[in-house]
Every structure is written in structure tokens, then in C-alpha cells.
Amino acid sequence: MFRLVFTVALFAMTYGRQVAQSEGRIVEGKDAEIEDYPYQLSLEFLFHFCGASLIRPNVAVTAAYCTHKIDDYKPYLSVSAGSSLVHEGGQEANILNICSHPKYDSAILDYDVSVILLDQSFVLGARVQTIPLQPVNDEIPTGTVATVTGWGTLQENGSLPEKLQAVQVQKIEFSDCVELYSHHNKTVTDRMVCFGFTESGKDACKYDSGGPLVINGILVGLGSWEIGCAKPNQPGVYTKISHPEINSHINECLTKFE
User: Fold this and answer.
1) Which residues have CB under 8 Å from 17's CB, separation 6+?
2) At 226, is the pLDDT very low, low, confident or very high (cuts 50, 70, 90)?
3) Residue 73 has what DSSP assignment?
4) Of 37, 41, 111, 230, which one's alpha carbon is 20 to 30 angstroms from that of 149?
5) Per its UniProt record, what InterPro entries does this chain match (predicted)?
6) Any residues with CB less than 8 A from the CB of 164 and at least 6 apart, and which?
7) Shortest CA distance to 203 belongs to which of 160, 159, 236?
8) Quick count: other Cβ atoms within 10 Å of Cβ 38?
């Protein structure tokens, strides 16, 4: 028992510092039913700490930020699916293997993608489904609306919701996003795509990192970083699924797991 309590405390301190770098990522969203977003997963260490998406019955994709330096805690981690309520109902699996991008840069959260092999396949149905990946080099027009889901905080430094939240955000022109974040000495790379509103108000928030950004049933992004939550001129930055180096890494991990 002492070992478990100590491990929980150590994980909270270690991971808490990581989360503080980017505030993770739903503000001004609405309650959602898992049947409408059956690919949504929760990464848990006794508590929810990141989102993920199911891409095979036994494989999930999330941000490398969420799996960085957690090998020591892997025996205590789990992945939940099939419930609108966090920590209640649904199915659960443990983590068997983690395949993070070899170029992951924790300083600027570049190449922020990780593929997770589960120790068992989830039983697919109305509440649990896989989601296809956006094709490589596919580009989304500026202004296109996407949906972000998760159990992250309802506002910056706010409380975690019990029920899944969903919010719609629109794509920001890449050059505009680069310019906006240059004022904060933050780097936006080609492996990133930005969604939100310049006037802010709607956004993902803390503990939504790794969660899905979806357009027409296709996974186009993974919650990665931003400054704070829902602040003006600070849109959410997501790992770009269609980038060749991101897309190929996911597929290489899938091959490795076969």
C-alpha cells in the first residue's frame, strides 16, 4: 500500500510539472454522449490525465506529451472506453507497449504523437468504435470547423467535469498562428495545426492533451499545447495527423504491433 501511495504522489508531482508547461487542453463546451464520440478514450492513473483515440480495437493514439517519461508508472496506467462519465462504467484495458515518435521534442512539443498498444482489444459497439486517420498530405481549408472532446477542466485552473465535453473550433490560417505565437516566443512547426477563435471563448483545456480533433468522422489532430485556455489570439495547437512524419510514424507503430 505504501508503495502505491508513494507512486501516486510521485506521478502527480512529475506529471503535474509536465502539464503546467502547456495547460494541456474544454471551455464553453457542452455535455456529450459517448455514443456520438465512441472513439474517445481516457488515459488514467487512478485519475484521468489525458485523452486518446481508438484507431484499432487494441491500439490508441495520443500525444507523446502524455506518455513521456511514464515507463515507471506503466503498470499502474489504464485506458478506458465506452462511457460518457469519467471513471464510471465502460471498458478498461492496460497498456502493453508505447511507441512514441523518436523526434519528440518536449521543449516545444514537436512531433507530439504516441501510439499505445493495449493488453486486450475493446469490444466494439455503439459506445466503442475506431476512428480513421486523416490521409497523409491532406490539407484542411482555413475556417473549417472541427470538434474537440474530452474530460479536461472547464476553465483554466478549474474543476474536472464528470461527463464528457465537446466543443467546436475552426481552423486558423497557419501563418496567422505562427505570427500570434511568435509574440510569446513560442514555435509553431509544420507538424502542428491550429484551431480556435482569435476572440477566444471556446477551447480545450487542462487534461485534454492527446484528445481527438475530428472533422466528419476523421481524426485530424491531437490536443498538444497552447498558452492557458481560451485566451484571445492564442488558439489551440494540435499535432497534425496528415503530416508525413506524423502519419508514417503511426503506421510504423501499427506494423510494429502486428
Assistant:
1) none
2) confident
3) G
4) 111
5) Peptidase_S1, Peptidase_S1_PA, Peptidase_S1_PA_chymotrypsin, Peptidase_S1A, Trypsin_dom
6) 31, 32, 33, 34, 37, 40, 84, 85, 86, 149, 150, 151
7) 236
8) 20
